[in-house]
Design a protein that fits this description.
This protein folds into two domains: 87 residues; 246 residues, Bira Bifunctional Protein, Domain 2 (BirA Bifunctional Protein, domain 2, 2-Layer Sandwich), CATH 3.30.930.10. Helix content is 43%, strand content 20%. The strands form three sheets. Strands 1-4-5-9-8-7-6 form a seven-stranded mixed beta sheet, sandwiched between helices. α1 runs parallel beside α4 and α5 packs across α12. The longest helix has 40 residues. The radius of gyration is 40 Å and the shape is elongated. The termini are far apart.
Length: 354
Amino acid sequence: MQLENLKAEVLAAIAGADTLSDLDAVRVGVLGKNGSLTALMKGLSALTLEEKKRVGGELNLVKQALTEALDAKKQALEDKELAAKLNQEKIDITLPVRPKTHGRIHPVAHVMEEMMAIYAAMGFDVAEGPDIEDDWHNFEALNIPPSHPARQMQDTFYIKETPYMLRTQTSGVQIRVMEAQKPPVKIVAPGRCYRVDSDATHSPAFNQVEGLYVDKGVTLAHLKSVLEESLKLFFETDDLVVRFRTSYFPFTEPSYEFDVGGKLARDIGKEWIELGGCGMVDPKVLENCGIDPNVYQGFAFGYGLDRCAMLKYAIPDIRSFFEGDVRWIRHYGFMPEDVPNSVTGLSLNGGTKR
């Protein structure tokens, strides 16, 4: 009778518990170290063997029933608390969404990726090199000895008390590739270069791309066809011609500066636009790289990516590329998914779809 009364009282207390802390107090009061049911189980030691079996069985049945009732009540209270919490923390879907800001890809980075895709489709590999160059790769291997006047033409940033400098062009990459690789060599070398020069169309830090093709039987006709085709693709017009003007560069012979004409020039009120330099690789440069100039010939070209971006996207001042104006980059920048039309027409199997 005492055990049944205890069971009824505890079940009533469990049913009346409104919080998890109240329920835990009931559990401790009956099943804890000093709980009422625990005390009855400790009293089994004073009983006879037959009484232990009978009373012990009854106690275990009551304990099992109370444990199940406690577990069920605990689950119910936890569900109730969770429902109340979710009800309090509900999202007001009538509120407007928070504005999202998107970064932009810089026009120069966009143009560089575009150019690399075009030349990759023509079979050129992309090569890179260090921004800090030594005298051999930046000057001497390119047929510019210490006494050569072209050293003064370069307006170089020298690193004091060292034989190193910030590279004035990416031609040093061409030297490194020719030193490490036997012909045929067919690469483009994009990257940042540095010269002491600054105005609306020149920057002390600028980006350019240079191309190099060394093999047997390479001619000026190959050079002109590569330049014309790549620039037509980049500027997205078939109405474009390339004009060569005789010039001088220590590392090419003959040397030319090349201009582009056609619709691109007419759109800005000019007949021709100066773009870059090119020529056949000087035999002395091939010798410096361990290549026999009697067997192999090559052409090289280079032009500024910044100027290409200015022409294609009507950007008036090169200095704005490096000023970090957020308004400027929002206007001229590109989203990651913006793929230029000139790239969508390429086939990376070595040709173009036109």
